[in-house]
Amino acid sequence: MSSLHLNIFPSFSPSKSASPTRGSGAQQASEEDTLARESDVTVSTNVTSYAEYKGFFVYVLSAITLGCYIAWAVLPESFLNDYLSIYYYPDKYWSLAIPSYFLMLMLFTYLGIALYNTEVLTLPLDDIRNFVDDYSTSPGSDSQTEEERIASSMEYIHKAPSGVWDLPITLVNEVLYTDYNEDSSGREIE
User: How far apart are CA 171 and CA 138, in angstroms?
Assistant: First the structure.
């Protein structure tokens, strides 16, 4: 009876010679082995990581803990005392109080973070950083003059955007608050 060896790592395989009856199959397997060694995907390692054992241990421990918690919370005291011989355990009040405290702590944490972001990290309305910062990108290139940049911004405002651009606040104010029946000097156009 012959044994079959998968030749993933040829340097670690028991026999390095290919069987002469395989023919092109051995060459194809050799090419696949080369591709597997050169790829980013790890097929196997000689060093066993114990992550799967640790994960299984945590899974079993959490399942046992949950089972004990549910038994403590649901089973009557007479059953715990008479059948399980458990006499020392916290009051049943804590089976509801602790999860409630954690739930409220989570809620207050979310509210606290939202308030901190709103009240502390939000810039005042009169701060110039609300309008322009180091990462602002305006329509047009940097080599354009200010008039050309405003003209390309005006074209950008009235089109469907293909990207996100920061528009100069003066241009936004002009579009929002200028009456189109007036020219730039304030005279009415008919």
Answer: 11
Residues 184 and 145 in one domain: yes
> What are the tens digits of pLDDT across the range 111-120?
999 999 988 9
Q: Is residue 160 part of a domain?
A: yes
Which range marks the domain in which residue 157 is found? Answer: 127-190
Across residues 9-31, what is the average pLDDT? Answer: 54
Q: How far apart are the first and last CA of the chain?
A: 101
Instruction: Identify the DSSP state of 107.
Output: H
- Report which of residues 56 and 19 the model is more confident about: 56
Query: What whole-number distance in Å separates Cα of residue 29 and Cα of residue 26?
Result: 5
DSSP state of 188: B
Task: List, for residues 54-98, the tens digit of each pLDDT value.
Answer: 889 999 999 999 999 999 999 999 998 898 888 888 899 999 999
In this structure, are residues 182 and 189 in contact, taking their beta carbons and an 8 Å threshold? yes
**Which residues, in sequence order, are CB contacts of 137 under 8 Å at separation 6+?**
164, 165, 166
- Between 17 and 115, whose confidence is greater? 115
Q: Which distant-in-sequence residues (6+ apart) come within 8 Å of 171 by Cβ?
A: 150, 153, 154, 157
Cα 23 off chain centre by: 49
Is 39 part of any domain? Answer: yes
Place of tokens 């528009």: 167
